[in-house]
Design brief:
By secondary structure, the protein is an alpha+beta fold. The chain has one domain. Helices cover 23% and strands 38% of the residues. It has two helices and five strands, in the order βααββββ. The protein has a five-stranded mixed beta sheet with strand order 1-5-4-3-2.
């Protein structure tokens, strides 16, 4: 991960009113259950699916979006 796109940072901070914790994002990127390669009009994306969160990176390895799969990944508890 090299950084965040605006939308990715906004989602990490406040998605669903609770956001996604930095630790959950790091855990997902370090030890994903699977990585799904995607392509859209903006180029390749890489969806990292973890135990508690999902993180999508662009080709520059910036977070474009993220979401918690359960309360363990919430930023605000």
């Amino acid at each position: 991960m090299t950084g965040y796109r605006f939308h990715g940072l906004a989602q990490a901070m406040s998605r669903d009113g609770v956001g996604v914790s930095p630790q959950a994002i790091l855990d997902t990127l370090r030890d994903p259950l699977k990585v799904i390669n995607q392509m859209d009009k903006l180029g390749p994306k890489f969806e990292y699916v973890g135990e508690n969160a999902v993180v999508v990176l662009n080709e520059a390895r910036e977070v474009v979006t993220t979401y918690a799969k359960n309360h363990e990944a919430w930023r605000l508890k």
